[in-house]
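User: Design a sequence. Structure:
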C-alpha cells in the first residue's frame, strides 16, 4: 500500500508503523558497519573523523533536497545519527581492547 492508497487514518498509521520497522532494520544494518569500523580502525583516535562526518551529513542533505523533504530535516537527523554512531563505535572499540 502507498500513502496515495490510504482511505483512513488506520491505514495511514499502519503504513507509518511499517516504515518505522523498516527504518529500525536499516539502522541496525548501518550500525553493523560501525561494528566493522571499530574492528578495522587501528586506534581510538581514528574513530572521530570530522571531515567524514561533514561529508556524510552533506550527502544526506543533498539527497533529502532531491527527495523534496523538509529543509533542515536531514541535517538535524544525520547530526544525531552520526554522533550516535561515533559513540557506539567508541564503546565497541573500547570493549574490544
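Assistant: Done.
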Amino acid at each position: 500500500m502507498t500513502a496515495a492508497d490510504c482511505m483512513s487514518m488506520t491505514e495511514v498509521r499502519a503504513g507509518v508503523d511499517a516504515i518505522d520497522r523498516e527504518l529500525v532494520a536499516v539502522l541496525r544494518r548501518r550500525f553493523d558497519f560501525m561494528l566493522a569500523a571499530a574492528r578495522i580502525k587501528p586506534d581510538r583516535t581514528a574513530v572521530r573523523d570530522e571531515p567524514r562526518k561533514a561529508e556524510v551529513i552533506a550527502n544526506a542533505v543533498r539527497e533529502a533536497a532531491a527527495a523534496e523533504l523538509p529543509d533542515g530535516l536531514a541535517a538535524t537527523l544525520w547530526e544525531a545519527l552520526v554522533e550516535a554512531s561515533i559513540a557506539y563505535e567508541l564503546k565497541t572499540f573500547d570493549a574490544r581492547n
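The chain has a mean pLDDT of 97. Helices lie at 9-40, 50-66, 73-96.
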